[in-house]
Design goal:
By secondary structure, the protein is α/β, with parallel strands linked by helices. The chain has 2 domains: 102 residues, no CATH class; 206 residues, Rossmann fold (3-Layer(aba) Sandwich). Helix content is 40%, strand content 27%. Helix 1 runs antiparallel to helix 2. The longest helix is centred in the N-terminal third of the chain and has 23 residues. The radius of gyration is 35 Å and the shape is elongated. It starts with a strand and ends in a 5-residue tail after the last helix. 34% of the residues are buried.
Length: 332
């Protein structure tokens, strides 16, 4: 048995308080109207007493009414559903080259953020950690099931918040540290970058070795095609002093061999996404790869049991009304 709306039970408490206030008020109330039918001493039921009894009945009727509004329900069946989840860290490159404009309608970073956010929506049972890196690496969000918070933090990511550079080893090492104490059977890192390692104190292959020792699978995604790509370049106009933005072709170095080796040594897969659609397809494939089943119980069928309480409340109210109409005669 369960209550669908337990807060409705407060109506019963309110009813008892109102009854108490009404009785205290009636204690000092006088009725200046003459009583019909002769002396009050000759009547079996005094009108004032009848009114009090009717009031008590009316207030009492609110108690089963409150129970009816709370909607008691009988649980008819339970089902065992299978859910799926892993502990996962998404490592996102936020270096300057992620501002390249070859991923229309926006730049690489915005497309990657949108794709990752959609990916997280499809995996509500995963614990997710977010790590961002450029010339250094920071944990944006530790392992959590609160994907709304993770999505908000991901949306706040901007290029330029970290020293420029591409410290793949630092980003990977930070993610490994986040998953190190996890007791999950499956631990996964998804590394998203568009460049070659050129910064940081931790070598990528050393970080890869740490991941392998911890039983962490690393999937790598190389974003963009490399070479010369359109990039917004900020400069200051020497004549006016105003900051200007101009799109220029900038050479971006990539190292797909390094990413492939990182994935191979940890039992993961290496992908390359040259456009937004390809990036979405990569995450869809990763979603199909990383599944761990567990069981949870979910209530599925109920039978409503409020009808009896509602009927009792109605009968008590009718009894109170009849008592006042036929035996009362004093104003409420």
């Amino acid at each position: 048995m369960r209550l669908a709306h337990p807060a409705a039970l407060s109506l019963g408490v309110i009813a008892l308080l109102l009854l108490l206030i009404w009785l205290l008020r009636r204690r000092w109330q006088r009725y200046p109207f003459p009583q019909p039918g002769g002396s009050a001493s000759r009547r079996i039921l005094q009108p004032g007493m009848v009114t009090v009894m009717a009031g008590i009945l009316a207030a009492t009727a609110l108690i089963p009414l409150a129970l009816a509004l709370a909607r008691p329900q009988e649980v008819l069946s339970r089902s065992i559903e299978h859910a799926q989840g892993v502990d996962m860290a998404v490592v996102l490159d936020v270096s300057g080259s992620m501002a390249a404009l070859d991923f229309q309608p926006t730049d690489r970073l915005e497309v990657a953020k949108k794709t990752i956010s959609h990916f997280l929506d499809q995996r509500p049972h995963d614990r997710i950690a977010l790590v961002v890196f450029a010339g250094a690496a920071v944990t944006l969000c530790p392992l959590t099931l609160d994907h709304d918070v993770a999505a908000q933090l991901l949306d706040s990511v901007r290029i330029g918040a970290l020293p420029d550079g591409t410290a793949i080893g630092m980003g990977l090492g930070t993610a490994v540290n986040r998953l190190r104490k996890s007791q999950a059977k499956s631990k996964v890192i998804i590394l998203v970058t568009d460049g070659a390692n050129n910064a940081g104190q931790l070598d990528p292959m050393t970080a890869t070795g740490l991941a392998a020792e911890e039983g962490i699978t690393v999937h790598t995604i190389l974003v963009g095609k490399g070479g010369k790509v359109p990039m917004p370049v900020h400069y200051r106009d020497p004549m006016t002093g105003r900051e200007m933005v101009q799109t220029r072709l900038v050479e971006v170095e990539t190292n797909p061999e390094l990413l492939a080796e990182i994935s191979r040594k940890t039992g993961g897969l290496s992908f390359r996404a040259r456009d937004p659609k390809a990036l979405e397809e990569v995450f869809t494939r990763i979603d199909s790869l990383e599944k761990t089943e567990f069981k949870s119980t979910r209530l599925v069928k109920y039978r409503e049991k409020f009808e009896v309480s509602a009927l009792v409340s109605l009968l008590i109210l009718l009894a109170a009304l009849c008592l006042e109409v036929f035996f009362g005669g004093t104003p409420w």
